Amino acid sequence: MRRALNSKAILRSSAIRNLSTVGVLGAGQMGGGIAQVAAVVAQKPVVLVDSNPDQLDRAVSFMGKLLGKAVDKGKLTREQADAGLARLSTSSDMASFAEVDIVVEAATENVDLKLKLFEQIANATPAHSILASNTSSISITKLASATNRPEQVIGMHFMNPVPVMKLVEVIPGLLTSPQTLDDTMKLAKEMGKVTTQSRDIPGFIANRILMPYINEAIQALYEGIGTPEDIDTTMKLGTNVPMGPLTLADFIGLDTCLAIMRVLHTELGDSKYRPSPLLVQYVNANRLGKKSGAGFYEY
What fold characterizes domain 209-290? Predict the structure, then answer.
C-alpha cells in the first residue's frame, strides 16, 4: 500500500522524548552560547566538541565571564552558575558524542564542511540521536543526505548572542519525522527559547528577510548614498530597530553574511540576492566585523 510523503513534517507525535544529554559541535561564539543555555537554562549535561583545544578553553573562559556577569546582575545565583559550568564537559574527539541524545552542529556556514561533519556525527552518535544544525541558510534536506538517518536530522537556527536572543527557528527537512520535530521543539523550550517553524527553503524565514536588507544597506554604502553612520542612524531611528544594518552586519560577521547571500543567490537563482561587490571586497580584505577588529566600523 502506498503512503504519502509528509514533506512538511507538521504532524504531531503522541510521545515526546526527553533529550537528556546534549552534544554541541563547534566552540565558537554560537556553539559556546548553545552549550551555555543547554547547561544552565535547560540544566542538561553538555558535551562541547571542537578540534581546536585552545578554542575550547576560550569558550569555557568566555562562558564563565558571562555567567559571572549574570550573577553580578542578580539574574543567576552563584550556585546556579557553578552548577551550569559543572554540567559542561569538553573534548576534541567526536567519540565523546557516544552517549548523547542530540548533537547541535555549529560550524562555519560552509556546505561541504557541514556535509562532512554530518557524516562523521552520524557515525559517532547512538542510533537514536537527533542530528541538528545551527545553519542559517543551508538545506537541512541536503545535510540529512550525508547521514544514515535523515528522519532524525533537523535545523535549530539560534540567534546571536544565544544566551540573550529568545528565538530559535526550527526547520524540518523533507524526511524529518514528526517525532524529531516534537522532541526538538521541546528541547528549545527547555532552553528558554521561543520557537518558530520554517520550511526548508534557503535562508529560512529570518535570513530570507534579513540578509537582503543588510546587503542593500551595503550596496547603498557602495553607491555613496550615505556614510555608514548616516545609513545606520536612518534605519535605527527611522524604523525603531536596536541597531543599524551595517552595525548588525559587523556583529554577525561579514564572512557569514556573504556565505548566506551566496547560498540565497545560488539556490534561488534570482539576481536580487547577488552579494554587493563591497561585501565581497571587505571579506577579501579580512575586514569581517567585530570578530576581526574591523568591518564597516573599527573595534
Answer: N-(1-d-carboxylethyl)-l-norvaline Dehydrogenase; domain 2 (1.10.1040)
State yes or no: is 169 an active-site residue: yes
Per domain, the residue ranges of the chain are: 22-197, 209-290
Nearest Cα neighbor of 40 from 9, 14, 71, 18 is 71
Among 3.40.50.300, 3.30.420.40, 3.40.50.720, 3.40.50.2000, name the CATH number for the domain at 22-197: 3.40.50.720
pLDDT digits (tens, 9 = 90+) for 60-105: 999 999 999 999 999 999 999 999 999 999 999 999 999 999 999 9
Q: Is 33 exposed, middle or buried (0-12, 13-18, 19+ CB in 10 A)?
A: buried
Which position among 134, 139, 207, 215 bears the catalytic label?
Answer: 207
Q: Where are the alpha helices (DSSP H) in 4-144?
A: 29-36, 53-72, 78-86, 111-124, 140-144
- Rounded CA-CA distance 293/33 in Å is 21
Mark whether 157 is an active-site residue.
Answer: yes
Half-sphere exposure of 172 (CA within 13 A, CB side): 22
Q: Model-level pTM greater than 0.70?
A: yes
Q: Contact 98/126 with Cβ under 8 angstroms?
A: yes
Among 105, 133, 137, 157, the active-site one is 157
From the list 136, 137, 198, 215, the catalytic residue is: 136
- Of the candidates 151, 169, 215, 276, the residue annotated as catalytic is 169
